[in-house]
Amino acid sequence: MERMTQQAPAKVNLALDILGRRPDGYHEMRMVMQTVSLCDTVTVEKRGEGFSLYIEGFELPLGKKPLEQRATEAFFAAIGRPMPGLSVTLKKRTPAYAGLGGGSADVAALLRLLREAYCPEMPGEELERIGFQVGSDMPFCVRGGTALAEGRGEILTDLPPLPPCWFILCKPDFDIPTPSLFAKADGAELKDHPDIGSMTAALEQRDLAGVARRMGNVFEKVLQPEARREVAYIQEVLLRCGALNAVMSGSGPTVFGLFGRREETEWPLEVLRRKYKQTFLAEPVKKF
Questions:
Q1: CA 67 to CA 165: how far, in whole Å?
Q2: pLDDT at 112
Q3: Rounded mean pLDDT of 150-159?
């Protein structure tokens, strides 16, 4: 195996709904997900023995097996081969703990590289199944594009791609633990569920404004007051600067605004970057 590199695109949730808690303790979800051009870079090469992971600029926690290693072990178990010595390097650009699936995207890119090197005949659905063993976002991140995600996120239905558009993604300077948001959602009466059926119809009609009108995330309703104020402020800036809509992605706190033309993003990018260092411009990425 020679040194191989692949991009790991982040994701946004155009719509996120929680249908309820399942008997297995997880939550039944219904989401419209989209990969975007903000991405990390994943490099893998055969080296020595065992598994090593290096993340540029980050200290790895001691004594904890990383998701990348767990996914690699699951991949080689699935193809019935011993795992060779592998070295994996991540060059991060997507913010961590941001609701953008950065960690899942890195693992998904690694799985795609392993398939290319060791089992190119493996169907995409099998690679998604392997990814699902280590994370609920993994099947979508393996596939990419525009998709309806149901169950825990593993039941995927491809949707028509978004019409040409642009995203501004803005992460405020705090993190939100996903388990705490799910716990608050369990105790809340969730209202204003996103109309995912109408969103999929708008995608089929290539109606960008119609997609934007149906964007929504029920997690916004259960944020702590301080986090909610910050998210609302970023949304207000994006909307006043011409975004078709602006919502929080995943469990947050990143907010993204949807724009029809790139030139419309110049002013809101300048405004938000004055206050938020982690503000990015991105466009949709198609299915792998």
A1: 32
A2: 98
A3: 96
Neighbours of 25 (CB within 10 A): 7
Name all domains of the chain by residue range, CATH numbers in brackets.
4-158 (3.30.230.10), 166-282 (3.30.70.890)
Those residues whose C-beta lies under 8 Å from the C-beta of residue 240, and which sit 6 or more positions away, are none
Q: Look up 173 and say whether it is catalytic.
A: no
Which residue in the list 11, 17, 40, 106 is annotated as catalytic? 11
Span 21-36, pLDDT tens digits: 888 888 899 999 999 9
Q: Which of 17, 40, 106, 137 is catalytic?
A: 137
pLDDT over 80 (residue 191): no
Closest CA to 18 of 253, 217, 249: 217
pLDDT of residue 248: 97
Check residue 187 and give its pLDDT. Answer: 67
Q: Is 137 a catalytic residue?
A: yes
Mean pLDDT of 247-274: 97
pLDDT tens digits along 130-149 = 999 999 999 999 999 999 99
Q: Which residue has the tokens 């040409």?
A: 164
